[in-house]
Design a protein that fits this description.
The chain is an alpha/beta fold.
Length: 744
């Protein structure tokens, strides 16, 4: 006999499914005592109506005496187990969100809204009786709807009820009437909406590993068995065989009877990626990402929940998949900023993965060609293990990177050209040889800084060593870290040039210039403007792969892990753009972008070349990228972050206030700071409210308050309290970003 420990407890602590960050005590009725567990979803009387909530705790007694009783269980098996609830609580505390927001994050909407029955689909088929043609003709004049539904059914065979309803254009009650007349039979079927149903996938076998791969795998296996180390950073260039290591590590986990989660950035969650995992593990794979229909997501989630699928591959939110006996979490391309969720709670999937790993006692494997500084630092201080794959599997050389000093170019030509002579010549030689070129411009943050086009000078705050941001409203420059302001110089302080307010090179302008230079070339631009339709993105890439395009021009979008064997030249039009973001991470970003871009060239039989145009040829990020010197750059960058107490030596919280009236937004910001300040310890640095680098978006004025401290708790907790107390005008929106990646 199984004894349940839960029936001893009489009180359930319940979080209600409306935005309240509180727990309420409810009495557990005798009849439910054996079934109510932590994580159970329950129906409860609340105020004057019934609502739903989650049991987040159980207790023997409550301080209150007038407790209401739970009404019933929504689902018998809890949708969230204790660990996931603990994780949700952690997310709420860490990212200054409510527990209810955190629960929404860990449990997909499709699952919250529809119970397990959402999947059960009612099928309808015609009975023998309905096949009587005379009867149908008698029905037609009286009940044209019923007749039409029968017509459809007789010609299609069995259909799902909603299908038939849609096809015949009738209401569901028509089908009911037919059922009453015994003309149709309705039965319960479970059909799985399979996002991969249409694909035929060839099974693959594990490859014999190269020594470095074998070493890495051994380390991962040890981590899976002993949790020593509990997290591993796998650093290897693109094509060095990281994915093969993931596949074999997952096989190991499966053989132990455990499950695995693989996170990939949304952009690289292509059919090819999924195919590789399906090819190895077949139906044991479930897929979760944002492009699934509600039904597909629901069904995939339940396949995992019922342990029919033991491996989950997906984007950010797949991290919360209810995999039982989790043995391994893989985070591929762990440095990708898209792992940070843009909505509240703004969690970072890599960091939460490490936390879930700790809570579940499972190994975490982070893979990247250019690991984030935070991860590198965690290796340095012994928190993560490190495995390195130094070569590409095909032993192809990394491309040669040439740095073009645009100041020299400007002096030689008398003015600044967008295409340097070297780059133009290199493109021409590719066109002559029918090879492909990618031109790359990272436009982000461009308009907000002041750059001298003649010498590349950029105004920087000497206190904070980040770029000053140009604000049109006040015609001044502002430090986004400390709030200091400065005048816009009339001439460049470095070279005296008067055209200092450099404006407007974008991909569009480059496209026009390239087309005038090479009128016969087939040129295509790809950026957020040309790819607003979901399809256009794949269309352009397809055409490029099929070599129907000679020169592809784009923003960072084209730097992501795409493989084009025909590309032998990559040009970076203006490497300084990402250097000039008003953000202390700009050097790291630039370095990573250049490494990624370099990885795009020369994947075929011809070695590649990368040409980088810059005004700052000696900048450490650019020099280190040229030497492909990851460790060197990161060590140097860590030192400067340590000096200025920037992450990873502190945590940074960015609170953004937004609203239609600048006055009100600024005032709310000041009010918030006034209430927050007394709650903060002296170790917390606070700046603001100051206008955000993008001080106005879509008519909304934006202000920011920036907090920094070695302890997240020292900021999250007071912030959460303050936000609860703060009386803010309804039109002012407020978002808290803990460990903000960007401060735009
Ligand atoms: P990454 O994930 O680092 O980009 P992949 O795992 O995709 O690298 O490997 C790149 C290519 O090399 C793939 O086509 C893969 O099948 C192949 N490959 C990986 N490991 C081996 C191996 N040990 N032997 C032969 N081919 C391999
Ligand atoms: Zn400053």
């Amino acid at each position: 006999m199984i004894l349940s420990v839960h029936c001893m407890q009489k009180i359930a602590k319940v979080v209600v499914e409306i935005a309240l960050d509180r727990e309420f005590d409810y009495r557990i009725p005798e009849a439910l005592a054996a079934q109510v567990r932590i994580g159970s979803r329950v129906r409860i009387p609340f105020g004057h109506s019934m609502t739903r909530g989650y049991v987040v705790g159980l207790a023997d007694h409550s301080d209150r005496h007038d407790l209401k009783a739970l009404d019933s269980l929504v689902s018998p098996k809890p949708l969230l187990d204790e660990t996931m609830l603990k994780l949700a609580r952690w997310i709420g505390d860490y990212y200054a969100a409510t527990i209810e927001q955190a629960i929404r994050t860990v449990l997909p909407c499709a699952v919250r809204r529809h119970g397990a029955r959402f999947r059960e689909q009612r099928d309808v088929c015609a009975t023998e009786l309905a096949r009587d043609a005379a009867l149908l003709e008698k029905l037609r004049p009286k009940n044209p709807g019923q007749a039409s539904a029968l017509d459809h059914l007789l010609s299609h065979g069995t259909m799902a009820v909603p299908e038939l309803v849609a096809a015949a254009g009738v209401s569901a009650s028509v089908i009911k009437s037919l059922e009453k007349k015994k003309l149709v039979l309705i039965s319960l079927g479970t059909r799985r909406r399979d996002p991969l149903a249409a694909q035929i996938i060839l099974p693959t076998q594990p490859l014999t590993l190269f020594p470095e791969q074998a070493e890495a795998l051994a380390m991962v296996k040890q981590s899976i068995d002993t949790l020593k180390p509990s997290a591993i950073l796998l650093h290897g260039v693109t094509g060095s065989g990281k994915t093969e290591v993931y596949l074999q590590a997952i096989r190991y986990v499966l053989d132990k009877g455990q499950g695995a989660i693989v996170l990939v950035p949304e952009i690289s969650l292509t059919p090819q990626t999924v195919e590789r995992f399906r090819g190895r593990f077949g139906d044991a794979i479930a897929v979760l990402h944002s492009h699934l229909s509600d039904g597909e997501r629901h069904d995939e989630w339940y396949r995992i929940y019922e342990s029919k699928a033991r491996i989950v591959i997906g984007a950010r939110s797949a991290l919360f998949a209810p995999v039982e006996k989790l043995g391994l979490i893989v985070v591929d391309e762990e440095h990708e900023p898209s792992y940070k969720q843009a909505d509240v709670p703004r969690y970072h999937a890599r960091d939460v993965a490490v936390m879930r790993g700790q809570m579940e006692g499972c190994a975490v494997l982070l893979g990247s060609a250019s690991p984030a500084l935070e991860s590198f630092y965690n290796v340095r201080r012994g928190k993560y293990g490190l495995a390195v794959l130094t070569h590409r599997v095909d032993h192809r050389q990394m491309p040669v990177m040439r740095i073009i000093d645009m100041r020299v170019e400007a002096e030689r030509e008398g003015h600044v050209n967008i295409l340097s002579r070297e780059l133009a010549e290199a493109i021409k030689s590719r066109l002559d040889r029918a090879e492909q070129t990618m031109l790359f411009l990272n436009r982000r943050g461009f308009a907000t800084t002041v750059i001298c086009p003649a010498c590349g000078f950029v105004a920087t705050c000497d206190q904070c060593s980040i770029k000053l941001t140009y604000h049109k409203n006040g015609e001044n420059l502002r430090c986004h870290m400390c709030g200091r302001t400065a005048k816009v110089p009339a001439r460049c302080p470095a070279c005296g040039d008067r055209t200092i307010k450099f404006t407007g090179i974008g991909t569009q302008r480059i496209e026009a210039i390239v087309k005038t230079f090479f009128p016969k070339a087939r040129v295509q631009r790809m950026d957020a403007d040309t790819t607003s339709r979901k399809l256009a993105f794949h269309e352009i890439l397809g055409a490029f792969k099929a070599r129907k395009i000679d020169i592809l021009i784009g923003t960072q979008m084209i730097a992501k892990g795409l493989h084009f064997p025909g590309v032998t030249l990559v040009g970076v039009i203006y490497a300084d753009l990402s250097l000039h973001m008003p953000d202390f991470r700009s050097a790291e970003r630039t370095f990573q972008l250049l490494l990624q871009v370099a990885g795009r060239a020369g994947r075929g039989d011809v070695p590649g070349e990368v040409i980088v145009q810059t005004f700052n040829p000696m900048h450490p990020a650019i020099q280190a990228a040229r030497r492909l010197d990851y460790q060197g750059f990161m060590d140097q960058e860590l030192e400067s972050r340590r000096e200025l107490v920037y992450p990873p030596f502190s945590h940074l919280v960015c609170v953004t206030l937004e609203g239609p009236s600048e006055e009100t937004v600024a005032m709310t910001g000041r009010m918030m700071v006034k209430q927050l300040q007394p709650k903060l310890t002296p170790a917390v640095k606070l700046a603001g409210p100051i206008p955000a680098p993008f001080s106005r978006i879509k008519g909304q004025f934006r202000y920011q308050v920036i907090l920094r401290s070695p302890s997240v708790k020292a900021m999250s907790r007071p912030l959460k309290e303050t936000l609860c107390e703060l009386k803010r005008p309804a039109k002012v929106r407020l978002a808290v970003d803990v460990d903000a990646l960007s401060m735009m």
